């Protein structure tokens, strides 16, 4: 992975208090950027993974050994829902759900049982919570979570994160849900698989191209999580999206411009559905206009609020 240059992406001065942060799924795309940012801010990170290793504990160890001493916990674990190599079967859907809900529940239960519960507990979910619309604007207070598979998955994850009211952690541990949009970065998410067709001049909008595409640079998603951990007063839901609204067509044009390639060939909806299955294809063919109102009110300053500079940074 290339080095992350935090002076550009992290507008916050390192805090004085060092935190011990537990990061579920810290080996992944977002987790690697978050871990790098937290360490560069002087914090200590322990990763929770399916596989043991230095600086890690496993999910199997948590229920038996309990929560290791920590000041904050974050969960990013989950089977990659958009993996085009996996067919959209009932078995894969179960894997996608269980990998998120079970890990979240294991961590929430360990927090609830901890003698010294952490000060903060952050779960990353998705903006698929909000029903797709080309016109309705959503913010963190908008209703949702019961529209389709992906929105119900967010509801199930957020329910699994709840700390029981009669536990030691109730009233001690601050809970935050970050609902992320499409995460853009060089080392994961959708961009790496799009580069080849776009470089060959075969890229273009997906479906009609008019669908909204809520997105965020991976450095800003990591930045929002670090900001939440360090601010000590943020609670509840924050939308992890950039403050600018873009459609899928805007995205194709901006990616083509950053690569200096034409983007005239659309990817038809029937092909998307053939590759991903219609229940998953909808995540690419439809989208919601999501505003990060509470994220901005919390004082977070984006390093990449606009799409063009975000893509140029990723491709530089
Ligand atoms: N990437 C995006 O565009 C995007 C958009 C919206 C929301 N999100 C959410 O943000 C979180 C982090 O995203 P990401 O892109 O960083 O995820 P990722 O890289 O695909 O996966 C994160 C980690 O999850 C663990 N994992 C994978 N499959 C698992 C399974 N079957 N059971 C248990 N753990 C499993 C892996 O850690 P180990 O191998 O170490 O166990 C992996 O490194 C995810 O929950 C995702 O839903 C991502």
TrEMBL record:
<feature type="domain" description="NAD-dependent epimerase/dehydratase">
    <location>
        <begin position="21"/>
        <end position="232"/>
    </location>
</feature>
<feature type="domain" description="DUF1731">
    <location>
        <begin position="267"/>
        <end position="314"/>
    </location>
</feature>
<dbReference type="InterPro" id="IPR013549">
    <property type="entry name" value="DUF1731"/>
</dbReference>
<dbReference type="InterPro" id="IPR036291">
    <property type="entry name" value="NAD(P)-bd_dom_sf"/>
</dbReference>
<dbReference type="Pfam" id="PF08338">
    <property type="entry name" value="DUF1731"/>
</dbReference>
<dbReference type="InterPro" id="IPR010099">
    <property type="entry name" value="SDR39U1"/>
</dbReference>
<dbReference type="Pfam" id="PF01370">
    <property type="entry name" value="Epimerase"/>
</dbReference>
<protein>
    <submittedName>
        <fullName>Epimerase family protein SDR39U1 isoform X1</fullName>
    </submittedName>
</protein>
<dbReference type="InterPro" id="IPR001509">
    <property type="entry name" value="Epimerase_deHydtase"/>
</dbReference>
């Amino acid at each position: 992975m290339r080095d992350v240059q935090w002076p550009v992406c992290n507008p916050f001065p390192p805090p004085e208090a060092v935190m011990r942060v537990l990061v579920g799924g810290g080996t992944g795309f977002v987790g690697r950027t978050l871990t790098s940012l937290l360490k560069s801010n002087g914090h200590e990170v322990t990763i929770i993974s399916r596989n043991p290793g230095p600086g890690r504990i496993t999910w199997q160890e948590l229920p038996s050994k309990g929560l290791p001493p920590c000041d904050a916990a974050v969960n990013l674990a989950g089977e990659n829902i958009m993996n085009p190599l996996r067919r959209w079967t009932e078995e894969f859907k179960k894997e996608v759900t269980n990998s998120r809900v079970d890990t979240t529940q294991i961590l929430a239960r360990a927090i609830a049982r901890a003698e010294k519960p952490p000060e903060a507990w952050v779960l990353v979910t998705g903006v698929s919570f909000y029903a797709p619309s080309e016109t309705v604007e959503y913010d963190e207070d908008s209703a949702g979570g019961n529209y389709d598979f992906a929105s119900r998955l967010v509801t199930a994850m957020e329910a699994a994160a709840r700390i029981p009211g009669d536990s030691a952690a109730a009233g001690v541990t601050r809970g935050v849900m970050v609902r992320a949009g499409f995460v853009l970065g060089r080392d994961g998410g959708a961009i790496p698989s799009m580069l080849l067709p776009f470089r060959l001049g075969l890229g273009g909008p997906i479906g009609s191209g008019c669908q909204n595409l809520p997105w965020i640079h991976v450095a800003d998603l990591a930045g929002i999580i670090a900001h939440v951990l360090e601010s000590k007063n943020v609670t509840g839901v924050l939308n992890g999206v950039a403050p600018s609204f873009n459609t899928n067509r805007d995205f194709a044009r901006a990616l083509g411009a950053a690569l200096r390639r034409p983007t005239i060939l659309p990817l038809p909806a029937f092909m998307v559905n053939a590759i991903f299955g219609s229940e998953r294809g909808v995540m690419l063919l439809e989208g919601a206009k999501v505003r990060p109102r509470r994220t901005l009110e919390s004082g977070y300053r984006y390093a990449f609020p606009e799409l063009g500079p975000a893509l140029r940074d990723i491709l530089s």
